[in-house]
């Protein structure tokens, strides 16, 4: 049975340049560092993409308004049976990124759409704009909610 899994990680965007650019570059490097071929259940580089504004001189809509989105998705075979293992991998990824919110949606052929959600309070980052690169937020400061009964 197929499991469709998709979602986003909203990048933390409350710093001024040059820290803002450093945060964006850091998060891009973390996504690039993901394995191409990951063991089951997979959390691989091909699943992810980062929304970026066009560098074109012509007016384009702002796709990074209040933060970039790191989005991901895949159709996998019955990954809901190993969802706890996948969530562990995903949380390792979150621990390496600078982010504010993340949602994972998944649906199988026999269950309704399920949602997993992580949030980080703004005060966890202690946004100072003092020119120092921020520290990653500890998992103990994350808030987690789920509609999936097995998590």
Question: Can I get a quick summary?
Answer:
This protein is α+β, with helices and mostly antiparallel strands. It has helices at 19-32, 83-96, and strands spanning 2-11, 48-50, 69-77, 99-108, 114-120, 142-146.
Secondary structure: elements and pairs:
Layout: E1 2-11, H1 19-32, E2 48-50, E3 69-77, H2 83-96, E4 99-108, E5 114-120, E6 142-146
Antiparallel strand pairs: 1-3, 1-4, 2-3, 4-5, 5-6
What strand order characterises the main sheet?
2-3-1-4-5-6
Computed Rg: 16 Å
Number of E strands: 6
Strand content: 25-35%
Stretches where pLDDT is under 50 for at least 5 consecutive residues are none
Mean pLDDT, all residues? 88
Q: Order of SSEs, N→C? A: EHEEHEEE
Sheet/helix structural class: alpha+beta
Kindly, what is the distance between the CA atoms of the first and last residues, rounded to a whole number of angstroms?
20 Å
Helix content estimate? 10-25%
Domain count, please report it: 1
Biggest beta sheet attributes: 6 strands, antiparallel
Estimate the global geometry from the Cα principal axes.
globular
Q: Please report the number of helical segments.
A: 2
What does this entry look like structurally?
The protein has 151 residues and is an alpha+beta fold. The protein starts with a strand and ends in a 5-residue tail after the last strand. It is globular and about 50 Å long. The mean pLDDT is 88. It has one domain (2-146). The chain has 2 helices and 6 strands.
């Amino acid at each position: 049975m197929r499991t469709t899994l998709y979602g986003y990680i909203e990048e933390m965007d409350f710093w001024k340049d040059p820290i803002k650019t450093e945060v964006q570059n850091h998060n891009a490097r973390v996504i690039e560092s993901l394995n191409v071929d990951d063991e089951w259940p997979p959390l691989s580089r091909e699943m992810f993409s980062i929304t970026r504004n066009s560098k074109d001189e012509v007016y384009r809509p702002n796709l990074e308004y209040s933060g970039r989105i790191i989005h991901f998705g895949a159709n996998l075979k019955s990954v809901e049976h190993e969802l706890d293992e996948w969530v562990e991998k995903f949380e390792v990824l979150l621990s390496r990124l600078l982010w504010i919110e993340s949602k994972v949606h998944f649906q199988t052929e026999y269950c309704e759409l399920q949602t997993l959600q992580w949030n980080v309070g703004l005060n966890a980052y202690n946004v100072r704009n003092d020119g120092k690169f921020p520290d990653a937020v500890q998992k103990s400061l994350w808030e987690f909610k789920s509609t999936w009964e097995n998590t």
